[in-house]
Amino acid sequence: MRVSRSQAAENRETVINVASRLFRERGFDGIGLKDLMKGAGLTQGAFYKQFASKEDLAAQASRRAMESATLRWSAATAAKPEDPLGAVIAFYLSMDHRGERMDGCPIVALGSDAARQGVDVKAPFEAGIKEHLEILGRFIAETNGEESDGKAMAILSTMVGALTLSRVVNDPDLAQAFLDAATNQIREAVAA
């Protein structure tokens, strides 16, 4: 049975969305095409009508994951517009975010995997990281009137590192300690 163009486009978006979540949960190599397509409610044969390769899908899913992360930052700041940096820090360095393996930060979930991928998969991460740095830089400027790319880089690095370490350990108290230590360091850095 032939699928209409609009249905094919909808199927493609579904696959990208499902892949974005499943890749964050299992890694790029942690799920095969058959299971990925099953998760999207489609057959494996439909994959090659939509994507050139699994790397093509990984690039598209990475872009979607980074877009999703930026939207989550926006939602956090919209909830607390008087302190957007504090809102992002509170959301990002939380035990709730730590537990969101399918919907959490793609840099944490896929960073080491992406580092081993080709340029097409790395490109959406680079674009998303640059966008995160721009947002943080803007928040720093709003908070203390200074422009500081270096400070934004240090903050993002601290946030990503703390969330990664909190996910690596089993002990929830230690995980919380990593998140709390990072929160305190970031607040001190911004105030300095």
From TrEMBL:
<feature type="domain" description="HTH tetR-type">
    <location>
        <begin position="9"/>
        <end position="69"/>
    </location>
</feature>
<dbReference type="GO" id="GO:0003677">
    <property type="term" value="F:DNA binding"/>
</dbReference>
<keyword id="KW-0805">Transcription regulation</keyword>
<keyword id="KW-0238">DNA-binding</keyword>
<dbReference type="InterPro" id="IPR036271">
    <property type="entry name" value="Tet_transcr_reg_TetR-rel_C_sf"/>
</dbReference>
<protein>
    <submittedName>
        <fullName>TetR family transcriptional regulator</fullName>
    </submittedName>
</protein>
<keyword id="KW-0804">Transcription</keyword>
<dbReference type="InterPro" id="IPR001647">
    <property type="entry name" value="HTH_TetR"/>
</dbReference>
<dbReference type="Pfam" id="PF00440">
    <property type="entry name" value="TetR_N"/>
</dbReference>
<dbReference type="InterPro" id="IPR009057">
    <property type="entry name" value="Homeodomain-like_sf"/>
</dbReference>
<feature type="DNA-binding region" description="H-T-H motif">
    <location>
        <begin position="32"/>
        <end position="51"/>
    </location>
</feature>
